[in-house]
């Protein structure tokens, strides 16, 4: 999802913001939203993620469901507006 669908040109987010994905059972990811693209990088050093505007926590499967805009038990901590940028912009449409 992060390196395939989310990086498509149709998924451009005009605001600059970051989302820290913090799975209880896997590596952390920092998702950077920007005017020209979305990028995602594994976070080895948590200090690098200090600028995250919203943290999304839960199991890997819960985070995966959240990224796909599906019901999940992921817990958000931080700006709901930043989380909404993801959920309203990164939407898949099958043709």
Which short descriptors sum up this protein?
2 helices, 95 residues, 29% strand, Nonspecific Lipid-transfer Protein, Chain A, globular, 5-stranded mixed β-sheet, alpha+beta, 19% helix
Describe this structure in words.
With 95 residues, the chain is of the alpha+beta class. The protein has one domain: Nonspecific Lipid-transfer Protein, Chain A (2-Layer Sandwich). It has helices spanning 60-67, 80-89; strands spanning 17-23, 28-33, 38-43, 54-58, 75-78.
Short note summarizing the structure:
With 95 residues, the chain is α+β, with helices and mostly antiparallel strands.
Termini separation: 18 Å
Over all CA atoms, what is the radius of gyration?
12 Å
- Strand line-up across the major sheet: 3-2-1-4-5
Give the overall silhouette: globular
Largest sheet: 5 strands, mixed
SSE topology string = EEEEHEH
Beta-strand portion reads 25-35%
Number of strands: 5
Helix content class: 10-25%
CATH superfamily name? SCP2 sterol-binding domain
* Low-confidence residue ranges: none
Tell me the number of structural domains.
1
Question: How are the SSEs placed, and which strands pair?
Answer:
Layout: E1 17-23, E2 28-33, E3 38-43, E4 54-58, H1 60-67, E5 75-78, H2 80-89
Parallel strand pairs: 1-4
Antiparallel strand pairs: 1-2, 2-3, 4-5
């Amino acid at each position: 999802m992060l390196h395939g669908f989310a990086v498509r040109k149709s998924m451009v987010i005009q605001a600059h913001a970051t989302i820290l994905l913090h799975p209880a059972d896997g590596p952390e990811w920092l998702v950077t939203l920007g005017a020209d693209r979305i990028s995602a990088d594994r976070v080895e050093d948590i200090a690098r993620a200090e600028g995250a505007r919203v943290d999304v926590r839960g199991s890997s499967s819960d985070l995966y469901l959240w990224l796909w805009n599906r019901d999940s038990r992921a817990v958000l901590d931080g700006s709901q507006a930043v989380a909404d940028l993801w959920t309203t912009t990164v939407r898949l449409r099958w043709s």
